[in-house]
Amino acid sequence: KENKSLISKLKIKASLMKEQFLYSLLTGRINSQNQFNSLAELAGVSLDGPSYAVLLFMIDDYSNFIKVNDRSMQELLKFSIVNVIEELALEVGHGYGIELLDGRGIALILNLKEGKNEDRFISELAFKAKDFFRQYYEFTLTVGISEIYHNDALLIKNAFNEANRAINYRLIKGKDQIIFFKDVAKEENNRYRYPSEFEAKLTMSIKQGKVQDVQRYIKKIIEYIKSQAVIPETAQYLCIDIINTIIKTLEEINVDVYGCFGSEFEQLYMQPFETIEALGNRIIKFCRSICSYIE
After folding, report:
1. b/e string for 231-270 if b means 16 or more Cβ within 10 A?
2. pLDDT of 36-48, one tens digit each?
3. Secondary structure (DSSP) of 69-96
4. Which position has the higher pLDDT, 17 or 145?
5. What's CA 163's distance to the chain center, in Å?
6. What is the pTM of this model?
């Protein structure tokens, strides 16, 4: 019994060391090749292939995911994601999955072997993983994929940043997608503002309590943002601008936002939104309550 207990403790310690190493690698906390070599050996991690990429698997509709699954089932499903993507990684090399600190996703450090360091092989892996969980577990994943890096494992931190930036484009492209960083990188310098006339008309419609007009102008702004292929951060800021415009308008007509719409107002910010349409619908719902109050 003592031996079994000791073995169990050693396995837990080894697992924690492995997770800490992988997370340090993703976040750029390993600064030299010597440090990498020694820590990788201690963690039992082998990354000796010539090429690297990072895939970020994010669970779509996460608020629903945690609503329909209790804590133990959530952990089991995330554990299953890690197992499935590590198994699929064997087709192109090998990989190590790790749950992100926020719990919403899994990062896969993919070590590609010769002849498999092409986007089409990575895309096939991502499609297989997505299809598996959609078919058997009835939830979807969006996947962000970095560029492929060669001969330097310390550049995995760059790949992780790219996968994160790619996944942010879910705000524009919608959920259940595979998004390559190289496909969206060219959009990152395209910044703009939506036409001021939309904002003026939205403001007037709110003051008059015209719910149909409010809905129409919010949808126009959302569609305009989408049509311009802006970077996700810009789209997010512009959506927040819409909310701020609504709040400012209410203040102008002496409506106590927090007193009258406290819980609904908090939901605009507190609950995460994953696509721009989802946020637009949430704003419209908020405005329906406002218009009902004003009428």
Report:
1. bbebbbebbeebbebbbebbeeeebebeeebeebbeebee
2. 988 888 888 888 8
3. S-HHHHHHHHHHHHHHHHHHHTTTEEEE
4. 145
5. 9
6. 0.72
For residue 68, what are its two tokens? 């329909």
State how far the Cα of 188 lies from the Cα of 172, in Å rounded to an integer. 13
| Strands 105-112 and 51-59, sheet pairing | antiparallel
Give the CA angle between residues 4, 8, 11 to the nearest 5°. Answer: 140
Q: Are 255 and 265 in contact (CB under 8 A)?
A: no
Nearest to 141 by CA among 65, 71, 89, 27: 65
Q: What is the pLDDT of residue 278?
A: 81
192 to 222, 232, 254: CA distances (angstroms): 13, 12, 31
| Residue 45, pLDDT score | 87
Helix (H) or strand (E) segment spanning residue 178: strand 178-180
Torsion angles phi and psi, residue 42, rounded to 5: -60, -35
Find residue 142's DSSP bridge partners: 58
Beta strands 178-180 and 51-59, pairing class = unpaired
Task: Please provide the average confidence, as pLDDT, over all residues in the chain.
Answer: 84
Alpha carbons 27 and 33: distance in angstroms, whole number: 15
Q: Do the beta carbons of residue 175 and residue 142 sit within 8 Å? A: yes
What's the rounded Cα separation, in Å, for the pair 94 and 91?
A: 8
**Beta carbons within 10 angstroms of residue 24's beta carbon:** 17
Rounded CA separation 7/3 (Å):
6
